[in-house]
Fold Formate dehydrogenase, alpha subunit.
Amino acid sequence: MTKVLGNGLRFEEQDSSANLLHSQCPFCSVQCTMQILEKTEGERKTYKVAPTQNSTSNGRLCIKGLNAHQHAYHPERLQYPLLKADGKFVRVSWKEALEFIKENFFNIQKGNGCDSIGVYGSGSLTNEEAYLLGKFARVALKTKYIDYNGRFCMSAAASAMNDAFGMDRGLTNKITEIPYTSCIILAGTNIAECQPTIWPYFHQAKQNGAFIIVIDPRETATSKLADLHLKVKPGTDAALANGFLKVIFEEGYVDQVFVDQKTEGFAELKAHMNHIQLEEIEALTDIPAEKIRLAARQYATAPTGMIFTARGVEQQTNGYLTVRNFINLVLVTGKIGKFGCGFGAITGQANGQGGREHGQKADQLPGYRSIVHPEHRKYIAKVWGIDEKDLPGKGVSAFEMMQKIAKKEILGLFVMGSNPVMSNPNALFVEKALKSLQCLIVVDTFLSETAQLADLVLPSSGYLEDEGTMTNFEGRVTWRPAKKELPNEVKHDWQILCEIAKVLGKGTYFSFSSPEEIFEELRLASKGGKADYYGITYDRLRRERVYWPCPSIGHPGTGRLFEQAFAHPDGKARLMAVENKYPKESISENYPLYLTTGRVLPHYLTGVQTRRSPALAARYTESFIEIHPKTAKKYKIEPNVLVKIESARGSAVARSKYSLKIREDTVFVPIHWGRKQNINQITTDDLDPVCKMPGFKVCAVKIRPMVNLEKSV
Ligand SMILES: Nc1nc2c(c(=O)[nH]1)N[C@H]1C(S)=C(S)[C@@H](COP(=O)(O)OP(=O)(O)OC[C@H]3O[C@@H](n4cnc5c(=O)[nH]c(N)nc54)[C@H](O)[C@@H]3O)O[C@H]1N2
Ligand SMILES: Nc1nc2c(c(=O)[nH]1)N[C@H]1C(S)=C(S)[C@@H](COP(=O)(O)OP(=O)(O)OC[C@H]3O[C@@H](n4cnc5c(=O)[nH]c(N)nc54)[C@H](O)[C@@H]3O)O[C@H]1N2
Ligand code: SF4
Ligand SMILES: [Mo]
């Protein structure tokens, strides 16, 4: 038998020793699809991977997707529940593990109330599991404290889009429109390295004549495509957007008809522009006024245009306002709700979109409902079969949970699918807090840095084993099949939640026997909400990827949002005057350089998975500090030496990598390595006041060589 792949590759599957798996990549938000051919030859197993066709990545896979199976089959995969006894993990049965949870959670909550347990979720979980985790926290544990790692990822863009448009969905229009847009602004987004399989859409736009503007303090694989690269001073993007707006107002590019019909707040924004001086913006951002003018004119006068943001502008203590200001640009030029025009905040994790819609957030109920809205509470309480007054209220954000742990207000923590001791800002503080917990339970596929601190670790299934739906960066719901058998005593996240709920006496609310059953409840729970999945079924997802909102069976899904009206009750979008604010953290005599953090192509987030994939790990075996040679010389740092990087919080180590591509006042360190290389040991835990996003992208540091070579003989 011969299997033919979407892009023409073929897997010969002629003998019974071959096992063909269909899956979706576990890493980023594109959700590329693939086939994995597993062959057994005697003792040896071999794997071949090939991309398959889907309407997003169009038969493409990046190097991470091609090698993801290497971690899925890694011998270090967790296989059994592990309990810590005398500082060492010992294998226990599921029965013992569940009993341990029951006893500990019961004892903690008995003396300290339901809110003494916190739940910490993830954008790696399927929609079904994210939904179930939210329900688990509120119904099984009755705690208000639940939040998730997406707080560090999508919170600035999500709250800005909610407030400006009345709805938060990654892309407001179809990805297939990108090639036909005439001007694209990419602000703090490195798509070529972070969502590489959609980068060809941007190449097509360029070939079709689009003018591409990239805003980034570094030259990246993405900025290579730019007609104009604005090498902005870190953290000053809100001011830069004010510069663009100033030019648009001054030179008369406002689409007054659109603004009058479809927006609120124009008068305030216009008045605010009287206080904006281009010279001041030039000084703040380090971008010459002429370049600001050019960018603004190109975007405003282009017949169609799109703006994309990502973590570069969002992971700031003014990330919310910065995104609002980029949305201002979209709105005053009327470039939204029609072909080739729109806004997108490029979602990060595999299910970064779905993970933020169905109740993992501190203030949220499924379907993007609000936990403080009486009607929303009533509806969900009915779906769940509980009394509305038993539904807890609003909790706090991910990092604020860590602060509550440090203050002993939260005494037990249940982590599913995240590695918070590495990914939170000010990680040394977080490590100390987690160590002080009475009970830490981590559900993971590996003994991550956080799992190592746990009292109990539960082994969960990975992408080849766990069927479910993921909503990708487009806002399209996708279905991930899974056929690989569970290794040893591994269980699915959803099974683990159901089993714990049962021992806690809440089994009747969690009597699910398949992901599809959970999805059926999710459909109902989301019905009538902003993220309405009611018209989406597993049957349908086996054939197509569906854009939400999709309110009824037979509804085609909504590819382009806001064609007629925005999602606020009056149908209008909101403009907002945004000040030229600096990030809270600023450089000083003691800490004279900006540190910014981010990603490299072959590694993923805290690296738990990609560092275990030999093909990926080999590309970068350790962390590095990208530094301009002039800056390096100033601090007596040779190429390829270990550098100590210090901030007011702590220190980290990385190897020097000279680069002319970075600003002289800035250094860049990726986030994928742990221990002394964990860059979050030094980042600031200042939070954006609106969305509680930490200022990951601006940290004041000093640097020095680990070994002073001048002194050595
Ligand atoms: N290879 C790879 N791909 C990934 C991931 C991964 O870990 N590895 N993670 C996934 C996830 S969860 C996410 S959230 C996305 C992240 O995707 P991106 O947000 O695109 O990635 P980052 O590298 O964090 O940041 C993007 C760019 O912002 C720039 N930047 C830093 N500071 C500033 C600033 O002040 N202003 C501006 N304008 N730019 C700035 C950086 O130089 C960087 O090039 O990627 C997803 N895809
Ligand atoms: N300085 C700095 N810090 C950052 C960022 C930055 O740009 N700069 N970016 C932030 C962003 S955007 C993000 S998204 C966060 C992410 O931060 P984390 O949540 O810590 O991200 P991961 O490394 O993906 O951790 C996921 C963990 O879950 C496990 N896992 C994977 N799949 C599953 C599953 O299906 N079930 C279970 N139970 N476990 C699973 C993995 O093995 C891994 O240990 O980091 C943030 N931290
Ligand atoms: S990491 Fe992202 S772009 Fe690469 S294969 Fe996976 S889903 Fe596709
Ligand atoms: Mo992210």
